[in-house]
Specification:
single chain, alpha+beta, two-stranded antiparallel ribbon, 12 strands
């Protein structure tokens, strides 16, 4: 309403005076909410009596100028500076170095750098330690990606990459973003030394989650696309402003026909961008950096001039370059891991922890998932012989997660995925029976085979049987990388095992396979789409007025995170048993060590970061140790130097935690009773 009120009596009136029909143009007046900005030559105030006209317009609206907040920007390098200074109305402050307009600095390089340093850099420097050391690691990563990284994009769009202060400013932002990521993957990060963020880790982190990364933009690589996008947007705005200035003295009240002028404005925009030396230099640098061919560069230049999101379009070339460089340099094992993190594997990063189904509650479990995704070593998972199966344990957790068959941890992960898919089928209106062997016994009465669950009413008179599996792509690390090879191979083996036998009795068979990093098999995607289509037809979905993408996102996230939660929980239990066994072999006084570690944790962390409190002089050592057996701080393994002894003393922590759901151990030949494991 305010903008409408001041449009005719102030903005339109002043622009008519500044742009006479048969005279020179002195500039223009624009309004941003309640800020009225004069982009004019100083002589306009004397020749056109602009200031008095402005005050008359304010009087008509019942407004007045706040002189204390008004500023004039007159650079010292301006020709006829003394003469221009005498033309400025009295009572308004004059800045020679720069001014702030719409949250952006306009002025000398020193002024612009000091502005960003005192606002953006200080804010991010203060936010990084607070946000990225938050005990909820999943929420901390979301805030880093969606809030902090979005905040500095405003600076990138408004800072000329050719400016002398630009490189120093971008280096500061680059360091702060890497520091935030380092806090997320390692709680003990020191601001003076970012150790684990190698070039490979950083390259993968800057990829979008759907491409296997973390979705953290690189300020150095995003700068040119962001600034070019601003040049395109500002050039189009300037053309529209000039078009409006030319027609502002038109006596007719008819508005500008956007349909009539759209084509001409786009053509003018391309011409203006070609004449802009800075734009041409930056585009040439961008083209050479990312090996854009000469014949396609012309199409790209027109594309960014007409695209609704030119920054995203330009940054897509950066993503392609990073991805291709990674695949040409990395080992086959690392490329296989990256492929498994793609598509549904990105749900681990993009899911917002607003629901229980969308979150991984324990901080060390989510941090462990991120480290495994980036190919970093897992805390407490030291290389050596496996205590359960006599295999070889690797630092990246492959053996403990997917190879060792002793215990029921892998079975619990399987059951967690199965239960989530069963819940989806029931939501879609299908009647399900879990582990019913009747169909298999029709073929062979002595058969012990059974699929995970059966849907009786998938088709009229035709049941559909499902068998769920979680497979690790690292088993194919030594061969040529092929995206989805692990899930495709597992789906084929399931089909060969069950389909022929079940088809004899008119039953359909469907495998549902997930890779350990989150990627789904192609057949699993197809049946998921069918189940979502059926779910959309249920009364529950109609009553909530939910769209198909929302419903699909909910169930896709629920199934994938169910696998992630239980898989990491099982591996963490294996690590605890391993560390406990090593502690028992040690000759150290474990009671004294544990007491000192817990005491140090209580002194150095807040109550929100650890589930432990010590009453200084009143807590006895024996009673304290009893409490530590049943209650474990979430991040003690990473916050103390002797984490191996600490973790091993708390093997029951996760199994007794009320915030973590553990699938019940079902039939497994190699299962071991829980009291024996602990």
């Amino acid at each position: 309403m305010f903008n409408i009120a001041i449009h005719s009596p102030i903005i339109k009136r002043l622009n008519k005076i500044l742009n006479p029909t048969n005279g020179p143009s002195y500039g223009c007046v624009i309004a941003l909410h309640d800020d009225i900005n004069f982009l004019v030559q100083p002589e306009a105030f004397s020749k056109l009596d602009l200031w008095n006209e402005f005050n008359l317009g304010l009087l008509e609206c019942g407004l007045e100028t706040n002189m204390t907040k008004s500023k004039f920007y007159l650079p010292l390098t301006m020709p006829n500076y003394e003469n221009a200074l005498s033309l400025i109305p009295q009572g308004i402050g004059i800045n020679n170095d720069g001014v702030k307009l719409a949250g952006s600095p306009i002025g000398t390089p020193e002024f612009c750098f000091n502005f960003w340093e005192s606002t953006l850099i200080q804010e991010i420097s203060h936010a990084i330690p607070l946000v990225c050391t938050w005990p909820n690691v999943q929420a901390a990563l979301c805030l880093l990606r969606l809030c902090i990284c979005t905040k500095f994009n405003h600076c990138l769009r408004l800072t000329d990459p050719t400016a002398e202060y630009s490189s120093k400013l971008i280096d500061r932002l680059h360091y702060l973003v890497q520091l935030g990521l380092s806090y997320v993957i390692d709680y003990n990060t020191s601001p003076d030394a970012i150790i684990e963020i190698s070039d490979n880790v950083w390259d993968q982190s800057t990829l979008p989650p759907k491409k296997g990364g973390l979705g953290i933009p690189d300020p150095k690589k995003m700068h040119i696309p962001a600034y070019l996008a601003t040049c395109v947007a500002s050039s189009m705005s300037m053309l529209r402003l000039k078009e409006a200035m030319r027609s502002i003295n038109d006596k007719s009240d008819q508005c500008i026909d956007s349909q009539r002028t759209e084509v001409s404005l786009n053509e003018l925009l391309i011409c203006n961008l070609r004449e802009n030396t800075t734009v041409q230099e930056l585009f040439s640098k961008f083209k050479n950096t990312y090996n854009i061919q000469k014949d396609s560069s012309e199409l790209i230049f027109k594309k960014i001039a007409m695209d609704d999101k030119p920054q995203a379009f330009l940054y897509s070339f950066v993503i392609v370059d990073i991805d291709s460089r990674i695949r040409s340099v990395w080992s086959s094992e690392d490329v296989t891991r990256l492929d498994s993190c793609c598509y549904e594997g990105g749900i681990l990063i993009t899911s917002l922890p607003i629901k229980k189904e969308f979150s991984i509650p324990s901080p060390h479990l989510f941090r462990e998932r991120i480290r495994m995704r980036l190919g970093l070593s897992i805390k407490g998972c030291n290389a050596g012989p496996c205590l359960d199966c006599n295999g070889h344990v690797d630092e990246n957790g492959y053996h403990l997660l997917s190879v060792c068959k002793i215990g029921n941890e892998r079975q619990c992960t399987h059951n967690a995925v199965r239960d989530a898919v069963v819940e989806l089928c029931r939501y879609a209106g299908l009647v399900t029976r879990i582990e019913d062997p009747n169909l298999n016994k029709l073929a062979n009465i002595k058969s012990k085979r059974r699929t995970d669950f059966v849907c009786d009413n998938f088709l009229p008179g035709v049941p559909l049987t499902f068998d769920v599996a979680v497979t690790d792509p690292r088993q194919f690390a030594l061969i040529k990388p092929q995206p989805g090879k692990a899930s495709i191979t597992k789906e084929k083996s399931k089909i060969n095992k069950y389909e022929k036998e079940l088809s004899k009795f008119g039953a359909l068979f469907q495998p549902f396979v997930l890779e350990s990093f989150g990627r789904w098999g192609p057949l699993s995607r197809l049946i998921f789409k069918e189940l979502i289509s059926r779910a959309m037809a249920t009364s529950a979905t109609h009553s909530l007025s939910l769209s198909r993408p929302v419903v699909a996102h909910y169930w896709r996230t629920k199934i994938t995170l169910a696998m992630h939660r239980q898989a990491n929980l099982g591996m963490y239990q294996r690590i605890q048993r391993r560390l406990k066994s090593e502690m028992n072999k040690s000759n150290n006084n474990s009671e004294d060590i544990i007491f000192q570690q817990h005491k140090q944790m209580a002194e150095n962390t807040t109550s929100s970061q650890a589930d432990l409190s010590i009453d200084g002089n009143t807590t006895s050592r024996s009673s304290f140790l009893k409490r530590t057996i049943s209650k474990t701080p979430t991040d003690q393994a990473e916050n103390t130097a002797s984490s191996r002894v600490l973790l091993s003393s708390n093997s029951q922590a996760l199994s007794t935690s009320p915030s973590v759901q553990i699938s019940s151990p079902t039939r497994c030949k190699n299962s071991v009773s829980r009291h024996k494991l602990i």
